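[step 3/7] inverse_fold.run input=structure_tokens len=202
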């Protein structure tokens, strides 16, 4: 188990280094930045009060789902004396936590400004702190969705899990706090982390 953990963690660090290097080159390509800006401006123009309320609800659900899913599995495993469920709760929680750590590491090295700071034509519903690349909400959402789907590969688990994770990513763009490339990279980190540590599931 310890050897497997070291191997998968080394792979994750390697992927992280590639992402940092790749994004450093990508940022120099003004075409991609223009694409990001155009999407953000179009989304801001399409906002309605009802949609904004819904997107705020979705984006804030991350704090409850990321904690609630592994906690629910753990409680269910304890009550039913189900060792596999308890192990899977640890797998989901670990995937989400590691994904969050990788995201913070990338934010520290890349230091991409938030869209509403970098471009005055982009308006945000609220002014998020920290830096923009990658999206932490998206990375942890996809880590939770992917690890849960790997642990329980049923359509009625996979479909709502990814629907929720995708909605989280979209909400971050809609609210004006993350570029599409921030969200896409966050999704890759989250899903990749869960896949890399799938040996932990029961």
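[step 3/7] decode complete -> sequence:
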């Amino acid at each position: 188990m310890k050897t497997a953990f070291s191997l998968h963690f080394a792979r994750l660090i390697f992927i992280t280094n590639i992402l940092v290097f790749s994004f450093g080159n990508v940022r120099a390509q003004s075409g991609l930045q223009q694409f990001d800006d155009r999407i953000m401006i179009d989304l801001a123009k399409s906002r309605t009060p009802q949609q904004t309320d819904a997107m705020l609800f979705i984006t804030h659900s991350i704090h409850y789902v990321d904690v609630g899913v592994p906690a629910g599995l753990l409680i269910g495993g304890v009550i039913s004396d189900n060792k596999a469920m308890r192990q899977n709760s640890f797998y989901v929680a670990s995937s989400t936590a590691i994904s969050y750590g990788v995201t913070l590491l990338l934010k520290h090295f890349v230091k991409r400004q938030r869209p509403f700071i970098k471009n005055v034509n982009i308006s945000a519903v609220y002014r998020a702190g920290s830096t923009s690349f990658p999206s932490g909400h998206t990375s942890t959402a996809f880590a939770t969705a992917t690890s849960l789907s790997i642990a329980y590969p049923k359509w009625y688990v996979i479909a709502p899990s990814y629907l929720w994770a995708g909605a989280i990513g979209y909400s971050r763009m809609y609210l004006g706090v993350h570029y599409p490339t921030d969200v896409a990279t966050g999704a890759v980190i989250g899903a990749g982390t869960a896949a890399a540590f799938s040996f932990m599931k029961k």
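[step 4/7] annotate
The radius of gyration is 18 Å.
The chain has a mean pLDDT of 89.
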